[in-house]
Amino acid sequence: xxxxxxxxxxxxxxxxxxxxxxxxxxxxxxxxxxxxxxxxxxxxxxxxxxxxxxxxxxxxxxxxxxxxxxxxxxxxxxxxxxxxxxxxxxxxxxxxxxxxxxxxxxxxxxxxxxxxxxxxxxxxxxxxxxxxxxxxxxxxxxxxxxxxxxxxxxxxxxxxxxxxxxxxxxxxxxxxxxxxxxxxxxxxxxxxxxxxxxxxxxxxxxxxxxxxxxxxxxxxxxxxxxxxxxxxxxxxxxxxxxxxxxxxxxxxxxxxxxxxxxxxxxxxxxxxxxxxxxxxxxxxxxxxxxxxx
Length: 293
Prior knowledge:
Layout: E1 2-3, E2 6-7, H1 13-21, E3 23-24, E4 29-30, H2 32-37, E5 41-46, E6 55-58, H3 67-77, E7 83-92, E8 95-105, E9 113-121, E10 125-127, H4 131-138, H5 145-156, E11 164-166, H6 168-189, E12 193-198, H7 199-208, E13 222-227, E14 243-249, H8 251-259, H9 263-290
Parallel strand pairs: 9-12, 12-13
Antiparallel strand pairs: 1-2, 1-5, 3-4, 5-6, 7-8, 8-9, 10-11, 13-14
Helix pairs in contact: 4-5, 6-7, 6-8
């Protein structure tokens, strides 16, 4: 859906320049995904089994850099200009990393600074990848994308299928725990936590961890900010991802909700589904192999 920060079919000068340079407009640097994995996609479209429509999902953490992260800074500091520091390792044993810390110097605050921590959460792909579709786009043959999947399947001896998915369950299990652990650490030192994520995924998280939202002026420890694609474009051709909702809660209420959310059943369902899926795959493979003799 998005490649190097722009819709895959965008023809704006900015989009063409980003493709030529393999540049990420959200970090204003070279595309990290391209450097690490050879691909430059930021989002994909997918229709989840629990959803009635196809949606666009951000699958690169850097998609939430830029304006979404900046919105968290502005929410807390207002018009005061704060310094944004990425990837801060606050403890080593156990290792605890924060995606960002934003702060301003403040002589009246403990330690001489007023700070917030910001976690950004995109979503992972699961199952098959979308690499062949990216290669088709890169070759200027987007209309032949399906042939690229068939070609890769033949090269790697795999079934000729397109079966990528969006791992919403992983967001719950990974992010849910991270918010509790990091929230506890930050609560002890008096630093608020912001969690920046896609609004669709925030709703999935809240469905599993039903914490109580607070009124605007109530004391809080954690603020979730949900952004989402609204079908419009910015002036340079990028897909807009405006703020949809802001939800605040306390660490105490969040951890209570997490402990009583019935997550054991949810994890059991995931466990059973994955075991059965793997077993079905092994059965198909054995059946295919038996046909060779």
